[in-house]
Amino acid sequence: MSKKTTSIPVHSLPKEYQEDFVFKQVTPDDLNALNETEHAHRHDYHIFSLVRTGTFHIEIDFEQYQIQAPAVLYIHPSQIHRIIKIEKADVFLLGMNSENLNPDYLRKLEQVILHARSLPVKSAIYTILDQTLILCASLFERKTDKLYASVLKDCFNAFVGLIVSQYLEQIEGTDNLSRYDILTKKFKLLLERDFILIKQPSDYADALNISTSYLNECVRNATGLPVSHHIHQRIILEAKRLLYYSDKSVKEIAAELGYDDYPYFCRIFAKITGTTALAFRNKITH
């Protein structure tokens, strides 16, 4: 096994993409060159994929997905992922940093969609997505055009907007959500932002200006599970990432995740996963 890094690898925009956009057709021959298969990693930009034909296998945050065409997939910069294989597939990847994304689309991605899964698309919307993708491909090559970056940014955002709208169609609109659902969404946004700093349900309740008992009531009604479960699950996910993709000790990882009480962290990890942190590391790295 190759030597681990001390932190999760983060891939930045390749140097050849000078205008802060990535546009790439991915084939089986491309995977090794893209460094997408050997090690899981994060990107510091958002990835939007259109699977046009075939089957696309990818691992995201320790879960493997088999995506059948036609489908779209969004990967948030916080998500660790690795392309496993492509079976006779035609897959296009479009990457953009947050600065170039339409602010409204970015808000939806950060506040509503966040860690999405792949989404199958119907033939009518697939045709529009494909036509927009072809236009993006043509404009991407016209690097000497006047206003190249501005035009490309607008075209890429049109493609992103179509994908965002598809995800939003799968999510019940805020007007139809119950009070429980609305507060649960707000809690999950806070959790994603502050899980290293805030560990107690009461602190999340205070941030939302409601009682702890009411927050638990809302989250239980919306998800079937208490607030503490969601807090622990988010922390353990990050712990698993670090156990696998870094060579930090369990004690160092506990401290990085905000636990000064190392034995307490170990007890939480064992309770949630059914195994010790060291046993988990040994299992997934051998």
What's this entry about, in short?
The chain is an alpha+beta fold.
Summarize the structure in words.
α6 crosses α7 and α8 (227-245) packs across α10. The chain has 2 domains: 10-170, Regulatory protein AraC (Jelly Rolls); 176-284, Orthogonal Bundle (Arc Repressor Mutant, subunit A). The chain is globular and about 60 Å long. Strands 2, 4, 5, 6, 7 and 8 form a 6-stranded antiparallel β-sheet that branches. Strands 1-3 form a two-stranded parallel sheet. The protein has helices spanning 30-34, 103-113, 123-141, 148-170, 179-194, 201-207, 212-223, 227-245, 250-256, 262-273, 277-284; strands at residues 10-11, 21-26, 42-43, 46-60, 63-68, 71-75, 81-96, 119-120. β4 and β5 (63-68) form a beta hairpin. It is built from 11 helices and 8 strands. The model is unreliable at 1-6 (pLDDT under 50). It is 49% helix and 19% strand. It has 286 residues and is of the alpha+beta class. Residues 185-283 form the HTH araC/xylS-type domain. Keywords: DNA-binding, Transcription, Transcription regulation. One of its GO terms (molecular function) is sequence-specific DNA binding.
